């Protein structure tokens, strides 16, 4: 009786999961994108009807065959680095470490005039670990307050910054779907870029609302975190991996990297609701220079300063003016 009562939810769960998986994996297959999920649901419906009429054996056989078929097909869905990518993710960052020197290849430094008008530039840049001075968390919002894209910017002597961003590696004509992110719809990328590119495009081109927070880290942790990003980016270039809305996104990967450096970091719902990461960092005592989360948010919001900056070379300077924990800066210079 227990086994019989379990078969109905098993068939329903497998049917729904399989339909979603077929829908997202067949996104470019024309009518097949509709027919395959419908066919899958029709077979599941037939099994449930048979079960309701007392034909338990066919229903059991269907359930077993369904799970085997799903597993066989799903294991064959593999990530790849060889697809028709959008220009902004056409290349993957790779790094080489030689003592104090880190060389990053394919650092993105696009000059954006609009979402479709830009100069594509991929550069090789060299950084000295001994010159690493700061770590900033950047959150960029495009709608809902609970969801933001999280990036980490590392600051070096001389006003040099490099941003690491965990991205969906979008293919040409891809449209993002949170649900699709559960079904191996997108590959994962860890991209290094300049702030004039990845931060400026969000505020000045896409119209997003952005915030910067100076993060306090233990001795040596910033260096370890930087090297962790370099390592992850390089490994993804050699062995692709799928993005996952829950387990492999911009904030969960930040946590997975950070906990290697600061053992015992507590899990928290704000690691999924990335828009509330400042509250999480405040709880950990990782923010400097202000007495409350509200004060951090007010001072860390740089959207207007960014949009007023006409000269991209002044961007990094201007967005940090007045940010808690950052050394006092001069006024915003839009020129």
TrEMBL record:
The keyword Membrane applies. Pfam families: Lnb_N. Residues 119-275 form the Lnb N-terminal periplasmic domain. The chain crosses the membrane at residues 6-24, 31-51, 57-77. The keyword Membrane applies. InterPro entries: Lnb_N. Keywords: Membrane, Transmembrane, Transmembrane helix. This is Lnb N-terminal periplasmic domain-containing protein.
């Amino acid at each position: 009786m227990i086994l019989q009562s379990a078969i109905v939810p098993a068939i329903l769960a497998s049917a729904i999961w399989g339909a979603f998986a077929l829908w997202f994996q067949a996104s470019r297959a024309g009518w097949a994108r509709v027919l395959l999920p419908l066919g899958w649901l029709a077979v599941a419906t037939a099994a449930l009807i048979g079960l309701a009429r007392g034909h338990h054996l066919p229903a059991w056989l269907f359930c077993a065959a369904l799970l085997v078929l799903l597993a066989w097909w799903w294991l064959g869905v593999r990530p790849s680095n060889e697809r028709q990518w959008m220009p902004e993710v056409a290349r993957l960052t790779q790094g080489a470490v030689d003592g104090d020197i880190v060389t990053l290849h394919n650092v993105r430094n696009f000059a954006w005039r609009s979402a479709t008008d830009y100069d594509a530039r991929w550069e090789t840049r060299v950084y000295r670990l001994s010159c690493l001075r700061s770590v900033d968390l950047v959150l960029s919002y495009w709608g809902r307050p609970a969801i933001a894209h999280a990036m980490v910017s590392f600051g070096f002597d001389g006003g040099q910054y490099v941003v690491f961003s965990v991205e969906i590696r979008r293919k040409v004509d891809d449209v993002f779907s949170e649900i699709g992110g559960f079904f191996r719809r997108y590959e994962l990328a860890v991209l290094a870029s300049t702030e004039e590119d990845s931060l400026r495009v969000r505020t000045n081109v896409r119209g997003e609302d952005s915030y910067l927070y100076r993060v306090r880290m233990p001795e040596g942790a910033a260096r370890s975190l930087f090297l962790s990003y370099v390592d992850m980016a390089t490994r993804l270039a050699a062995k692709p991996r799928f993005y996952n809305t829950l387990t492999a996104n911009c904030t969960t990967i930040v946590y997975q990297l950070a906990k290697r450096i600061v053992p015992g970091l507590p899990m928290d719902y704000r690691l999924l609701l990335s828009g509330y990461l400042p509250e999480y960092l405040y709880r950990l005592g990782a923010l400097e220079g202000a007495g409350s989360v509200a004060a951090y948010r007010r001072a860390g919001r740089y959207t207007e300063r960014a949009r007023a900056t006409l000269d991209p070379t002044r961007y990094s300077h201007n967005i940090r003016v007045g940010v808690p924990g950052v050394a006092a800066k001069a006024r915003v210079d839009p020129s």
